[in-house]
Design brief:
The protein has 81 residues and is α+β, with helices and mostly antiparallel strands. It has one domain: Ubiquitin-like (UB roll). Helices cover 17% and strands 20% of the residues. The protein has helices at residues 27-33, 64-70; strands at 2-7, 12-17, 75-78. A three-stranded mixed sheet has the order 2-1-3, with no helix packed on it. A hairpin with a 4-residue loop joins strand 1 (2-7) and strand 2. The chain is globular and about 30 Å long. The chain binds FE2/S2 (inorganic) cluster (FES). Residues 28, 40, 42, 44-51, 58, 60 line the site of FE2/S2 (inorganic) cluster. FE2/S2 (inorganic) cluster is lined by residues 28, 40, 42, 44-51, 58, 60.
Length: 81
């Protein structure tokens, strides 16, 4: 299974594979673990808001499973990539 990281600045898509065991991970740590740069100055405290993706969703406050329920096509849009 995979999600797609869409860099809005670069206009490029990057496939990112995941396993069932990743579904409960927050997006911030899941994506960083896959080598995707996610901005943060509070390291997941929910304060800095720099980790936001589309719709203002915070990657530190949303699991991969929650994201896929909101966005079944699995496209994660990141403005600065
Ligand atoms: S990492 Fe700071 S709000 Fe998400």
């Amino acid at each position: 299974m995979q999600v797609t990281v869409r860099g809005l600045a670069s206009q490029k898509d990057f496939p990112v594979a995941y396993e069932d065991s990743d579904l409960r991970s927050d997006l911030l740590h899941f994506l960083r673990g896959k080598g995707v740069t996610i901005a943060s100055s509070c390291e997941g405290e929910g304060v800095c808001k720099k980790c936001a993706i589309q719709n203002g969703w915070l990657t530190c406050e949303m699991t991969l499973e929650e994201f896929l329920k909101c966005r079944p096509d699995g496209v994660i849009e990141i403005s600065y990539l």
